[in-house]
């Protein structure tokens, strides 16, 4: 079967067992998508409008939330359309685009969280040197690295995937996954497998860096009450976010690579969509609740809005 983006169609089988309650799933899915967009945009707009939040930490948080919007938008529109349709198909080109966006989302999320760990390490372990180390130029470079390097990794993966000749078109997931497409290859895909293992090793080294950073952060924080308070306010949300995402992503990777094909479809769906649904929705809520300065800005903006409505 040749890879023609004009005639090649993938069939998604993730919704085969959800024929009776599709409209209920659609309503909840649409609600979660709207809520995800709302909470993320609310935090982003708050940071943009308030100049006191134009600090490295909040800029990195904005980058994380923009990435969350990209990840959620790569998943929700297609699944919502499929819930209202009897045919769950996607073209080769659309499948490759969805795969690239989701792939880039996962890579960028890990890189952003690593950069944020570095920022917290400097802020707590080297507070007197923070302004000299985390300059505006360095923040821009770190943000650019987070996005551009993730795009580069995604581009290489897309090229390797696009080169594969496919002998099937059935995907047992709710969306197009890079590994699910690779498994349909007629020929040996060792090159793609090697590249995937290289990415796993690289991002494992990122997690190692985060762990080492937090060992130093915790040691420093325990030395004073102010340090413990700062850790709870700024580092705890990051740890929750990092744990939530890495656990969800690892479950998806392990399940997609090693789970048996006869495993229940519902379980496959849960593991497959968790890292696309939960982090983008919970991250802004966690940061909004934990970061004092950001929480105050939410309240201030809300009160200002209420007064404007009443006076108007």
Explain this structure to me?
It is built from ten helices and three strands, in the order βααβαααβααααα. The protein has helices at residues 22-49, 56-83, 92-125, 130-133, 136-162, 178-182, 190-221, 225-258, 265-290, 292-311; strands spanning 9-12, 89-91, 170-171. Strands 2-1-3 form a three-stranded mixed β-sheet. Helix 3 (92-125) runs antiparallel to helix 5, helix 3 runs parallel beside helix 7 (190-221) and helix 3 runs antiparallel to helix 8. Residues 1-6 have low confidence and may be disordered.
Task: Put the structure in a nutshell.
With 312 residues, the protein is mainly α. Helices cover 76% and strands 3% of the residues.
What is the percentage of strand-forming residues?
A: under 5%
Q: For the report, how would you describe the main beta sheet?
A: 3 strands, mixed
Estimate percent helicity. over 70%
Beta strands, count: 3
**Over the alpha carbons, how many angstroms does the gyration radius reach?**
21 Å
Which secondary-structure class do the elements indicate? mainly alpha
How does the overall form come out from the CA principal axes?
Answer: globular
Give the averaged pLDDT, no decimals. Answer: 84
Element-by-element helix/strand order: EHHEHHHEHHHHH
Describe the strand arrangement of the main beta sheet, using strand numbers: 2-1-3
Distance between termini?
64 Å
The number of helical segments is 10
List unreliable stretches of 5+ residues. Answer: 1-6
């Amino acid at each position: 079967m040749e890879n023609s983006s004009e005639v090649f169609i993938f069939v998604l089988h993730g919704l085969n067992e959800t024929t009776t309650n599709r409209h209920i799933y659609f309503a909840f899915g649409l609600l979660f998508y709207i809520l995800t967009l709302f909470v993320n945009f609310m935090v982003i707009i708050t940071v943009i409008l308030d100049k006191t939040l134009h600090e490295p930490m909040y800029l990195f948080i904005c980058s994380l939330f923009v990435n969350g919007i990209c990840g959620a938008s790569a998943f929700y529109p297609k699944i919502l359309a499929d819930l209202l349709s009897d045919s769950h198909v996607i073209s080769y080109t659309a499948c490759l685009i969805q795969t690239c966006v989701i792939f880039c989302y996962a890579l960028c999320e890990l890189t952003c969280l690593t950069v944020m760990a570095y920022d917290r390490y400097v802020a707590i372990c080297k507070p007197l040197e923070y302004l000299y180390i985390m300059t505006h130029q360095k923040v821009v470079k770190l943000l650019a690295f987070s996005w551009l390097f993730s795009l580069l990794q995604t581009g290489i993966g897309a090229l390797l995937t696009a080169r594969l000749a496919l002998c099937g078109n059935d995907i047992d997931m709710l969306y197009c996954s890079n590994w699910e497409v690779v498994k349909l290859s007629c020929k040996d895909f060792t090159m793609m497998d090697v590249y995937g293992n290289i990415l796993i090793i690289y991002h494992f080294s990122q997690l190692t860096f985060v762990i080492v950073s937090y060992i130093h952060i915790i040691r420093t924080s325990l030395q004073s009450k102010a340090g413990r308070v700062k850790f709870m306010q700024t580092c705890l949300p990051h740890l929750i976010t990092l744990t939530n995402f890495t656990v969800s992503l690892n479950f998806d990777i392990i399940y997609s690579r090693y789970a048996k094909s006869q495993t229940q479809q519902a379980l496959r769906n849960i593991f497959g969509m968790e890292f696309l649904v939960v982090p983008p929705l919970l991250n802004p809520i966690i940061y909004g609740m934990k970061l004092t300065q950001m929480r105050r800005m939410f309240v201030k903006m809300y009160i200002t809005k209420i007064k404007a409505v009443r006076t108007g």
